[in-house]
Amino acid sequence: MQDKITRIIAIRHGETAWNVDTRIQGQLDIPLNDMGRWQAKRLGGAVADEGIVAIYASDLLRAYETARAVADSTGCDIVTDIGLRERHFGEFEGFTWKEIGERWPVESERWRKRDLGFAPQGGESLPVFYERCVGTASRLAAAHAGQTIALVAHGGVMDCLYRAASRIDLQAPRSWQLGNASINRVLYTPEGFMLVGWSDTLHLDEDTRGESADKVGSAA
After folding, report:
1. What is the DSSP code string of 159-193?
2. What range defines the domain where residue 98 resides?
3. Which residues are catalytic?
4. How many domains does the chain have?
5. CATH assignment of the domain containing 79
6. Cα Rg for the chain, rounded, in angstroms?
7. What pLDDT, on the 0 to 100 scale, is given for residue 2?
8. pTM score
């Protein structure tokens, strides 16, 4: 049985300025901020000895920069896959949650209620996004049976993986954490995904964090 299991270390990208502002990034190409780069470096060290044989990442810069830290610590190359991109939010992209509510009150309400029939103008519906993410993760994991891989992507992608592994309905409200630069552990077999651990940020909470954060702030 072990030779059929793929260990997946699913990683959300580090922090960006738009995360801080609660601004919808979607598929806009926003880089990590100083804190995000620090988080990525800490993350890389945390997974250095996990036996990762392949790194797959969204091609969006915030995910790729995070994956680069994992590549530096493991010696693996990064393979980008657009199937790991964040949900396309169409006309919502670039606006804060508050601004979206003010500009598109009806559409915002449908979005917040996880209406399966809703897609922002020019964007993806939840079912289309879910099928893309889970389908991509399944395809990549199936190619590495018996091995450990890293998938570096976005909060929305992590949410889809959590739901797939926990058998939670797509319309159910989110009640779990999705921290930036978090480590999330999932197993894959031909029968599907299984949840092992979620939103591990211990690597960001050690005693050296305060000192490092001070250095990051002074360089801003």
Report:
1. HHHHHHHHT--TTSPP-S---TT-EEEEEEETTEE
2. 2-219
3. 13, 86
4. 1
5. 3.40.50.1240
6. 17
7. 66
8. 0.91
> For residue 15, what pLDDT is reported?
98
- In angstroms, the CA 88 to CA 5 distance is 31
SS3 115: coil
Within 78-191, strands assigned E span 78-80, 148-153, 183-189
Q: Residue type for 50, please? A: E
Cβ-proximal residues to 98 (8 Å cutoff; 6+ apart), any chain: 22
Residue 49: exposed, middle, or buried by beta-carbon count in 10 A (0-12, 13-18, 19+)?
Answer: exposed
Tens digits of per-residue pLDDT, 23-74? 999 999 999 999 999 999 999 999 999 999 999 999 999 999 999 999 999 9
The segments of the chain whose pLDDT lies below 70 read 1-2, 206-220
pLDDT, residue 217, reads 34
Q: Pull the structure tokens for residue 207.
A: 């005693």
Amino acid at 132: R
